[in-house]
Fold this protein.
Amino acid sequence: MEFWPEFLAGTSGREFIAGGVGGIAGVIAGHPLDTLRIRLQQPRANPSLAPIKATALLRQIVAKEGALALFKGMSSPVATIAFQNAVSFQTYAVVSRALQRREDDSHTLSYKNVAIAGVCAGTIQTLILSPVDLIKIRLQLLTDRVSKARAVRAVGPLDVVRGILRKEGFPGLYRGLTITVIRDAPSHAVYFGTYEYARECLHPGCRQNGDESLLTMLTAGGLAGAVSWIFCYPLDVVKSRLQGQLPGGPQRYTGIVHCMRKSVEEEGLKVLWRGLGTAVTRAYLVNGAIFSAYEMTLRFINPRPPGDLGLKAIDLSA
């Protein structure tokens, strides 16, 4: 009976709930564009053919599979994104506060420490994200494969999990974990750093008093997502291709380096940036929604302004 009042009375509890709400808002805002991104990143059957454009692929999916195909695989991230995003934001806030106590000025946090906290958040969340992303990618690609094979049986997340466990065992759920960590650890340093800097530039002093507008949250969050995706996008292409390989089938790529080298040899350097426009558009929408939902939820359940994810202002001169 007393769990929720006590949980929400603490800073960590409020941050956890706000992070979860932000994650759900992000999935709902961006999943159709995520489906387009994943399919655009996959290797073509005939590398000599020109890659399909995002708009053409969108029309093709809707015409052949129906509009609901754009939401295929969404149940997997929706079921876990609240916890995953809560863990990410909570880790960032906890590490930031710990680092803040080590600094001479207790009211500021340097960008170096923002980056360190971001790396920690990105690394921890991959333990949840990697298997969820694997299931999501398999479903997003399976839709296309099932359509081509004219199969009629619907396949869901549990079917994918059972198939992976049967053929690869529990370690199979973590196929692609290494490339996920390599992608997410540094990109989260960029992600949180961009957000903190952008919101302060757009609304000076807001990180101390927490009174920035919804437009500032949307813009800063969108910029954070877009910049971090540009930073890590080639690694995301490699990750999608490795996780898109079905067990028991032909393994086109044997590892991270082999995947990158073979992809470039067959399709040129541009392949590492294929689908970037769709990814950046999605990132802007998704992360604007995530940070806005996070900050607004904190304001709703927190009696004081949330401020800097529970922190004071970052020293912009660092």
About this structure: The mean pLDDT is 80.
